[in-house]
Amino acid sequence: MNIKGSTNIVGLIGHPVEHSFSPPMHNAAFEKLGMDYAYVAFDVEPQNLKSAIDGAKSLGIRGLNVTIPHKIEVMQYLDEIDEVAGLIGAVNTIDFKDMKGYNTDGIGAVRAIEEVTSIKDKNVVIAGAGGASRAISFYIAKYGASRLTILNRNVEKAQKLANDVSNSGLIGDVKADSISEIASILDDADILINTTPVGMHPNVNDEPIASASDMHEDLVVFDAVYNPNETGLLKEAVNAGAEPVFGIKMLLYQGAESFRIWTGVDAPVDAMEDALRKTINLK
Ligand code: ATR
Fold this sequence. Notes:
Layout: E1 8-14, H1 22-33, E2 37-43, H2 49-58, E3 63-66, E4 80-81, H3 83-88, E5 93-95, E6 100-102, H4 104-114, E7 123-127, H5 131-142, E8 147-152, H6 155-167, E9 173-178, H7 182-185, E10 191-194, E11 220-223, H8 232-239, E12 243-245, H9 248-263, H10 269-279
Parallel strand pairs: 1-2, 1-3, 4-6, 7-8, 7-10, 8-9, 10-11, 11-12
Antiparallel strand pairs: 3-5, 5-6
Helix pairs in contact: 1-10, 4-5, 4-9, 9-10
2'-monophosphoadenosine-5'-diphosphate binds next to helix 5.
């Protein structure tokens, strides 16, 4: 990387950030396109968030990714929030051109799935009702799914999310149910999305949220867990003849979308994916 007087800075704020995969992914993209940019990670403690945003503005930083624990708190320091990010209530990308916040996590999942199938008019089932599910659910609705069923251990939490998504007016048919009902609910589903941590390293032998016998061969199964690369759930999908979509693709496309927001240029996703695979020590 050739850092010069003219180099534009983008980066990440979070706490902690040292294990982030974003710097190598974005810097590979800048290098590939010969762009005069560098991406760095800043560890910002919660009490310093406002001064970090003010400082970034003063320093002429072009854009930031925002990760835990700042995704919600940072919104109050921005001038504008993208409509879907506002519905989600969390921001993971800031464009300093107009101090506008976006949420590219859900877009990342949607683009990962759309590599294999369109979301429009599909019956989508999502497991989990936490932050990741919230980001993805609103984008599933925005991309035209005909039905969304949110499954969770804590059904009340799923119902609250379902109400929020329904109130957005982006989709007509949203339901909540217990994750224990997954087998029957998958019968007429087109896409299953896992946002729970079940099967995540080191718990790779967790019983997957669904088994091959619950699935059918027209199902697309996306697991937001990216380590291991092929989770227990995705193995079940392969055994059922269903189409697996790997969690690493969500990381890739959320980054690609942030890159496009900051630079106005389509991201070189192949170079970014190569860098991601090298960085993430996949188990
Ligand atoms: P994230 O930001 O990654 O979405 P989160 O907000 O902590 O993380 O949400 C985790 C989700 O995974 C929750 O929906 C949680 O279910 P509960 O609300 O019932 O706790 C779900 N989850 C976590 N561990 C799980 C497990 N072992 N089996 C099923 N669901 C699980």
